[in-house]
Amino acid sequence: MIEQQFQNLAETYNCKWQNETYRVDVESGFGIEISYYTITIPHQESGITIRYEFGNHNLAKIKSSIKTVNAINNFTLTTRSHFSRLLYSKANIWQIKCKNNVLEKTVLNCLKESGLARLAQTEAFEPTIKGIQNNDTYTLTTEFYLGFNNKEQSLFPSLHFHQLMLDNFNRNYDVITEPNIN
After folding, report:
1. Residue 107 belongs to a domain
2. Which of 14, 87, 88, 130 has the greatest count of CB atoms below 10 A from its CB?
3. Record's superkingdom (predicted)?
4. pLDDT band at 85, cuts 50/70/90?
5. How far apart are the C-alpha atoms of 94 and 80, rounded to whole Å?
6. What's the 3-state SS for 12-31?
C-alpha cells in the first residue's frame, strides 16, 4: 500500500510525511474523495518534494531544485506510450530533448541506476521529466500518471533518480550551497 511506502520513506530519511484527504461534492450528488500524500526529503543543500494525488487526476509529482552559478542545459524526457512499446518492442522507450550530449547520457544513466528504466519496461509507467534553468535556479520535475499496476514501486526509484541527478549537478556544476528546501 502507498501509505506504507511513504511511512518507510519517512523512517528511512528521518522526516515526516502528510496525508490530506478531501471530499469534493459534484453536481450529480456524488462526491469524490481526493487524497494527497506528501513528503520532503532533505538531500545535500536541496529538498526533494514528493506528492502523490489519488482520486481526481491520480498524478505523482517529484520536484527538486538547486541554485547554480552557471546554467545547466534544459531537457525534457518522455516515454513512448505503453501501447506503442508493445507494437515496436525493439525501439528505444525514451525520448529525450537535450542540447547537451553529456547531460543526456547522465539522465539516461540515472534512469537505469535508479530503477526507473526497469519500472518503465515492466509497467505502464510513462513519466515526463524536465530540467529547467530559470535565472540562478535549476528545477528538476518528474510527473507521471498513477494508473498503473505496482504504483507503490515508483516511490523509491523516483526519489533515487532525483538524488542521483542532484549529486551529478553538485559534482559537475557550480552549485550555490545555501539551503533551498522546496
Report:
1. yes
2. 130
3. Bacteria
4. low
5. 6
6. HHCCCEEEEEEEEECCCCCE
* Three cell numbers, residue 139: 528545477
Is residue 11 situated within a structural domain?
Answer: no
| Segments forming the whole domain that contains residue 124 | 38-174
Residue carrying the nine cell digits 506528501: 38
Three cell numbers, residue 96: 529525450
- Tell me the CA distances in angstroms from 41 to 8, 11, 18, 93, 106, one per residue in order: 12, 11, 12, 29, 22
Q: Which of 104, 86, 87 is nearest to 95 (CA)?
A: 104
> Contact 6/36 with Cβ under 8 angstroms?
no
All residues at 6 or more sequence positions from 16 whose CB lies less than 8 Å from its CB, including other chains:
10, 39
pTM for the predicted model, two decimal places: 0.89
Nearest to 128 by CA among 165, 78, 60: 78
